[in-house]
Amino acid sequence: MVKRARLLYNPVSGHEIMERNVAGVLAVLEDAGYESSTFRTRPEEGSTQAEAKRAALAGFDLLVAAGGDGTINEVVNGIAGLKHRPMLGIIPVGTTNDYARALKIPREDPVGAAKIIAKGQHIGVDIGKANDQYFVNIAGGGNMMDLTYEVQSDVKSALGYLAYLLKGAEMLPRMRPIQMHLAYDEGTYDGEASMFFLSLTNSVGGLEQIAPDAVLGDGQFTLIIVKTANLVEIVQLLTMVLTGGRHVNDDRIIYTQTKRLDVAAKHGEQLKVNLDGEYGGDAPMHFVNLKQHIQAFANVAAIPDDAIADQDEVVKGKLIASVHALHDAHRNDSEDTAH
């Protein structure tokens, strides 16, 4: 049976780099044995999500999300709620490309990313669910949440620590803590916090040490609660992130692993929630980790062994299916012999 792939690409991501590389990407997919077609994403809200769901229900074997983290988020939201989900390929041509960083997929190189899919290496990745929405990399909330996202990658590379200091100074008028209630596996936090993060990978806003011990597919979020709202202390913590992830033991934060999180703002305050870099609604919100919910192509050879969880659940599922298939074949043979 011929495998079918649907390339969903954002024509404006990465300075329109995908428009110039669609033919090359399709050629790689065709050489890998996929009968391939394309969908050019449209500005209308939800169009990419709707097409991803349509393609999944139409029986496509592979969906390739080409764009930034937002495009990946829309594709995942289109398929995560389905019983039968296609495999996911990623071609990162956005600004930050956090998810691609974690999966070690070449960025700003569409054909190179397509070749990762062609290699056939894939892993079961966790997906976060926030009420009735899904996210692939990061959820968070609080008045300081935008700090990691609003610093552009090129500025971050050039200025480092100073880039965050400048952005923090710009955000100073809206910088204040929020009274939060957060309930997670190991306990409850009631008190002031400037922000909270729930991360599925080690890369947030281009910083690869915010969750240094994150493991792909382990069924756990990394939860970080930042209790301080002081600009100097926030920048100190970011500096500790940039210098080897030393923030994990700092008293000004709570750093833990959890499979679920319930978040609410106290005293009627508004607590906006960010999902994969976009506004996802206001708390109260319930988060749950869907372990190894989607099979995603990754540059597995480049990911450290201890950064990928045991894929036994996926292997067991395939093994059980194989045993059932052999049993059915044996039963059919017996019935044929009887006749």
UniProtKB/TrEMBL annotation:
Cofactor(s) listed: Mg(2+)
One Pfam family per UniProt: YegS_C
Keyword vocabulary terms for this entry: ATP-binding, Kinase, Lipid biosynthesis, Lipid metabolism, Magnesium, Metal-binding, Nucleotide-binding, Phospholipid biosynthesis, Phospholipid metabolism, Transferase
InterPro entries, per database record: ATP-NAD_kinase_N, Diacylglycerol/lipid_kinase, Diacylglycerol_kinase_cat_dom, Lipid_Phosphate_FormReg, NAD/diacylglycerol_kinase_sf, YegS/DAGK_C
Cited Gene3D superfamilies: 2.60.200.40, Probable inorganic polyphosphate/atp-NAD kinase, domain 1
GO molecular function ontology, one term from the record: ATP binding
GO biological process: phospholipid biosynthetic process
Tree of life domain: Bacteria
The keyword Ligase appears for this protein: no
UniProt KW Lyase keyword: no
Cellular component annotations (GO), alphabetically ordered: plasma membrane
Sequence similarity: Belongs to the diacylglycerol/lipid kinase family.
Protein name: Diacylglycerol kinase
